[in-house]
Amino acid sequence: ILLSGDVELNPGPVTDFSTLSQATTNDRSNFLLNYRLLRHGLNQLDVGGGGDCFFKSVSYQLYGDSHHHLELDLQVFNSSWSQYISNMSQPGTWADHIIIQAVADSMNLQIHIIESNPNFTEMTLVEATSLTQNPRCIYIGHIDELHYISTFPALSESSTNQVNSQKTYLNSSNSTNKCKRKSNDTV
């Protein structure tokens, strides 16, 4: 599986990040994520952590709350990859690129992952490999390769003002930023 962002390279937690405050200490990354989300008409919504943040974010996108994340785990992991599935289905285990693809496949989703890291493509699209009619599109954010968040629609007029003010801030402080990977759309 080849993805354009960084999710395929994230091996999981080195430390236990059980709270958002630990996982989102980089204000610049959070600011960049907000800017990128607003470009897509979205705001971020933290739905919790403890290693289940990807599944909680997808649950919120699909069901309107994050409480269905364990059901989502069961639906995705109902296959024959026994040991891998056994390890990955444990609460608190980070989602890797294989799991993200499995979620897209099992639920017929187009998962748009918007990155906070300026060194990665602004958005990674993970689609079901056998896309059927009318796939459901969801948008989640990825903060500093440590935490996934859900999103909700932004208000149009205030969002435009926020995007313009954030663009000014980013342009003024971006002169020393060198990127390894970037798309043409990335700030």
TrEMBL record:
GO biological process: protein deubiquitination
Location of the region described as Disordered in the Swiss-Prot/TrEMBL record: 166-187
Compositionally biased region (Polar residues): 166-177
Pfam family, one: OTU
InterPro entries assigned to the protein according to its UniProt record, in alphabetical order: OTU_dom, Papain-like_cys_pep_sf, Peptidase_C85-like
Sequence ranges assigned to domain OTU in this UniProt record: 42-154
Cited SUPFAM superfamilies: Cysteine proteinases
PROSITE patterns: OTU
Transmembrane segments: none
GO MF term (any one): cysteine-type deubiquitinase activity
Name of the protein: OTU domain-containing protein
Species the sequence originates in: Pocillopora meandrina
Lineage: Eukaryota, Metazoa, Cnidaria, Anthozoa, Hexacorallia
